[in-house]
Design a protein that fits this description.
mainly alpha; 2 helices; 93% helix
Length: 87
Amino acid sequence: MANHNGEKLVWFLAGAAVGSAAALLLAPKSGRELRRLIGNKAGEGREYLSGTGRDVYAKGKEIFEKGRGLADDAADLFERGRKAVHL
């Protein structure tokens, strides 16, 4: 489910970028203004994606740590159960 949502986010961002580029290219601006605007928008997009990437990484790390804790707890319970059966 999380991977599917990630794919949706990537396609949404790609669509937004294409739409923005089309709007900029069709806007009545001079070449210099248009290049400056495209550069600014590209910088904003990079910053947004970088921040989103950091957020996704942090959430993934948090989920991984929880999973590792659950696996450690399960291994401990298994070991205690194995010892109890052999007594």
